[in-house]
């Protein structure tokens, strides 16, 4: 079963990964770096305590996949589509939902990816004058 991608993650394994990921300390470390092997080694070590045997690469891959899936569901929802959904959306939204404004200001996103309150605030000011 252990091919290049490793065996499929069970629901409990993903829940445990998300629980560790929701740790503010882990989040801060992940937000601040691209070279994150050391962080995922910590994550894997914490999973071991739950009796979950995953190496850091598997943890990082699952993290990236969950994050990617979350973003695609989130952007589909933002554009009014309800057809896309995922199993752990609410849990991930609790972790990732807060940092989207930060990322929007950091990276050079176009207007459509900015939080709605920015564009609303602008139009209110325009209508006052």
UniProtKB/TrEMBL annotation:
Comp. bias regions, Basic and acidic residues: 105-129
InterPro entries: Myb_DNA-bind_4
One Pfam entry name: Myb_DNA-bind_4
Myb/SANT-like DNA-binding domain sequence ranges: 7-95
Annotated segments matching region Disordered: 100-129
Protein name as annotated: ZSC29 protein
Organism, as annotated: Brachypodius melanocephalos (black-headed bulbul)
